[in-house]
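Researcher: Good morning. I'm working through a list of sequences from a screen, and I'd like to move beyond sequence-only analysis. For each chain I'm collecting a predicted structure so we can compare shapes side by side. This is the next one on the list. No need for commentary yet; just the structure.
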Amino acid sequence: MAVTAVTAPAVPSLPARQAPETRALLAAGPLLHELSHGLGGPYHVLFPGPFDANAAAFRDAFAEAGVAGRVYYAKKANKAALYTERAAVLGLGVDVASLGELRETLACGVPAPDVVVTGPAKADDLLRVAVLQGALVAVDALDELDRIAHAAAGLGRTARVLLRRLPPAQPHSRFGMDAEELEAALRRCADAPLVLEGFSFHLSGYDLPARADLAGELVRLCRHARTLGLRADRISIGGGFPVDYADGDDWRRFTEEQRPEHYHARKTFSGGFYPYHSPVAGAGALRAILAAVPAGEADPLAALLRAAGVTLLVEPGRALLDQAGCTVFRIQGVKERDGYAILTVDGSSLSLSEQWFESEFLPDPVLVPRVPSPEGTHEACVGAATCLESDMLTWRRVPFPHRPAVGDLLVYLNTAGYQMDSNESPFHELPLPPKVVVEPAPGSADPAARPRWRLDRHP
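Model: Good morning. Structure tokens for this chain:
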């Protein structure tokens, strides 16, 4: 059945920013359709170039501030082998939180001393391998400190640890130790086969001044620990660096104009939306943190770090994966409903994880027609090929510039950070979408040259 065209956009649009790699892929429309046909379903595209560029930008921020810093890629943000392999080649560290992630990271060539093990209440097997391999461990609680000390003693090794501070501004967080517990932990570090390398924290949200304030406290903790004869020469401020998905004017217009009637079934979201525009994002956010003056201090964080001889560790995931991938679905059904269309694609929202946090991935998907079609505005939401009423990739009625049809593709942009595979499941025995690494043709300086591709090596 035909999709009703409207004469003017009745719903707001939110175009996604596009890196050169994305534009080149969209321009190679036949390749997208060939991959859809050959792979027999939805798939994820991985770009190595933006990952490398983002890593370089974080390192540049440290260099500009004159601060000793280390970048750890937060592996939980994407299961692909590509990004961990690039971390190994670039000399980045990797942040892992499970034995499986640790094994995969080591297999990708990252040296164990370049790995930091985070997460709460780590399994004994994970602690054992971390001690044996010489990985750095962020210790979350006193009982975990005792367990890693016991493991190190039994193995005849010394364990490298950070002590995680409970954020005073988030006292109900389940991560970290309060001031009294930290004092007890420092005493135990002095009498156990442990090397206290410093402190860390897990801070929810994207409040940059709050991250700088807590970093300032960690510098003071390092100075205090040294009076007890402990090493304490580094701190980790984790991740939480915003990503700028959309232009500021587009985001402001969207947030001002969007209403429940712009969504299928007048859907609303109790979880709110990710801030898809951030004027200070990625490595720029690190620069802002380094330039901020922490509470109770007179100098910027960068100066405090230099004066104390403290190295700053960061663990970005989403920010390193900005523009490093996209997700492609094929339309396999079109149904008209109340002046807009319900599109059904060949996958599920388990491969676009934002829906499973009671939210919506808002940047507009790009329609890649199978055959040319007339221009016009055609509103459509996007549903999945499952039996669940709630399984919608996009509840919003997106204003597409062409009439969506069976066989067309929808490309969701900038999905590498947490969207692709955090919640993927072979529900209905549907196969998990494969990951395809797309790179420029070797030796070609022509941006319009057809890219080459291969499957990611992750099983």
